[in-house]
Amino acid sequence: MESLYNSRNSWLTIDKVSQLVGVPKYTLRYWEQQFSDFLSPGRTNGGHRRFTGEDMKRIKQIKELLKDKGYSIRGAKKRLKTEDQTLKTEDIDYLAQKIALVLKNEFLG
Q1: Can you tell me the mean pLDDT for 68-75?
Q2: For 43, phi and psi rounded to 5 degrees?
């Protein structure tokens, strides 16, 4: 199986992302503009986009919402924002539980 990432830099070009996700490059550029709060690939000194694994996950989410589930761009943005807030809440809950456990062990032995 071909590696998804350049082993030196852990990034993908827009050509590779287009092939892997199955959407044209112009669509990826458009999504980058429309979903700038959720997707912002890095750039080389020459201005070429470089996508990470996290970018790929987000692109797949966007594709699923728009193409598979029929969301509008506005609806997809709302859904992504809600999902991000839910994840942050879950992270906070998890950390609070860990802190409580550490404090309990520290003070109650």
Answers
A1: 96
A2: -135, 145
